[in-house]
Inverse folding.
């Protein structure tokens, strides 16, 4: 009876202290990698970052080259405008100069001609609210079947053609969407900051840096005649370094994600270059690319297509590589004794789920962007082979598959890199800590014997 009562007495002062110390040591934040590993990672990342900086300096464009506006598509002088009055009128009165319709409404042109003569049109008075002609008004006639109808008080974008007759110099080209777009961007920024806090702020700063690199370096450099692929690789690398290190800190974990992203980007570039050339994709498939080629005939349009593939894949690659690296680091923290093979097997199981969701997301994103085009092929009752063989769709297929292959490859590449790095780092117990730990174990042994 005396022995059971005496055992609990010595336990409160000594054993809880040793136990708390051991618990905090094993479940606290993961220790930083060793100095040797930091040197190895720096030997890879620093030369790469230096090469990116040198590339930015060597290919820095210094601005967009000047050219004489053609007045076609986006290459027009535009000003802000406002609809001050809308009056409903008989289409026959405002379309008096039109050729009378044949009465055949079986074709779209026939139906449009009938509407232009028999429907009710809108006669809008538009005021120019910016530029040298601020305050000037003009009349815009909107047909009843026009996809965009005007209303009084609506902000619009007007195009200016200086060589046209005075009454025809201005025309409405689009709706002014600045207010809703700005409000939506503000809501997005507030949501990111509210949930992400400081990480969210850094993510927004990284986003601003990405847009700056895109608008100040990549686009002007391509317009000045630099190789689109080289410019895209340099710009994408700069965006990657800024985004990853700003959002996730200058750590070994982030550096592994950087190396994994770089390897995947190189794979995407090689595959894209091979299959874009093999499939004879010109990159000149619509009015916009045709206008670019007309204004700047020296631009390599197929290279521009490849540059778009690389930049488009970068955002999803960052997500995959950071997630895989963090997963491996957390697995190592949960079981520090797990070797690199065990870490790789556990990490790749997580990566398989990531692959399935990311690839599906990428394919659906491209399919959604090309939905009107796919709808046209469906209306024409074209076969799957015919649709896939057309250059418009073939571009999207190559873009999707090349990007998806890079994403799939990034999972095992990043996982094995993270597993090798984190498992090679065995801090072990320092002499002082091992000395301090020994008495605790001895003490517990003495208590058991007692």
């Amino acid at each position: 009876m005396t022995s059971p009562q005496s055992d609990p007495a010595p336990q409160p002062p000594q054993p809880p202290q040793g136990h708390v110390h051991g618990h905090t040591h094993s479940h606290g934040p993961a220790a930083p990698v060793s100095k040797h590993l930091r040197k190895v990672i720096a030997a890879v990342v620093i030369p790469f970052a230096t090469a990116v900086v040198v590339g930015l300096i060597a290919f820095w464009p210094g601005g967009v080259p000047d050219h004489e506006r053609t007045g076609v598509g986006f290459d027009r002088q535009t000003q802000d405008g406002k609809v001050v009055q809308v009056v409903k009128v008989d289409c026959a009165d405002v379309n008096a100069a039109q050729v009378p319709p044949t009465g055949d409404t079986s074709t779209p042109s026939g139906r449009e001609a009938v509407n232009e003569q028999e429907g009710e049109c809108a006669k809008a008075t538009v005021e120019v609210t910016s530029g040298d002609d601020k305050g000037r008004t003009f009349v815009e006639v909107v047909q009843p079947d026009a996809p965009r109808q005007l209303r009084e008080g609506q902000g619009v974008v007007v195009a200016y053609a200086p060589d046209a007759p005075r009454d025809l110099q201005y025309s409405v080209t689009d709706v002014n969407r600045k207010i809703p777009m700005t409000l939506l961007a503000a809501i997005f920024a507030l949501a990111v900051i509210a949930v992400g806090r400081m990480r969210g702020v850094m993510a927004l700063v990284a986003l601003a840096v990405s847009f700056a690199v895109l608008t100040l370096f990549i686009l002007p450099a391509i317009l000045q005649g630099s190789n689109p692929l080289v410019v895209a690789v340099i710009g994408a690398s700069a965006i990657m370094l800024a985004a990853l290190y700003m959002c996730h800190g200058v750590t070994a974990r982030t550096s592994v994600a950087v190396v994994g992203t770089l390897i995947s980007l190189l794979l995407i570039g090689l595959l894209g270059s091979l299959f874009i050339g093999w499939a004879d994709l010109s990159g000149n498939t619509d009015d916009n690319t045709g206008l670019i080629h007309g204004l700047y005939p020296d631009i390599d349009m197929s290279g521009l297509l490849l540059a778009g593939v690389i930049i488009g894949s970068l955002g999803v690659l960052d997500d995959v590589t950071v997630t895989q690296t963090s997963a491996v680091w957390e697995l190592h923290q949960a079981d520090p004794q797990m070797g690199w093979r065990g870490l790789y097997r556990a990490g790749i199981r997580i990566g398989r789920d990531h692959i399935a969701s990311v690839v599906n997301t990428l394919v659906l994103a491209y399919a959604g962007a090309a939905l009107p085009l796919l709808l046209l092929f469906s209306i024409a009752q074209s076969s799957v082979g015919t649709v896939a063989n057309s250059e418009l769709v073939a571009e999207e297929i190559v873009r999707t598959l090349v990007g998806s292959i890079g994403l799939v490859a990034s999972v095992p590449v990043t996982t094995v890199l993270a597993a090798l790095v984190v498992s090679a780092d065995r801090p072990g117990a320092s002499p002082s800590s091992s000395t301090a730990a020994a008495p605790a174990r001895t003490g517990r042994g003495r208590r058991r014997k007692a």
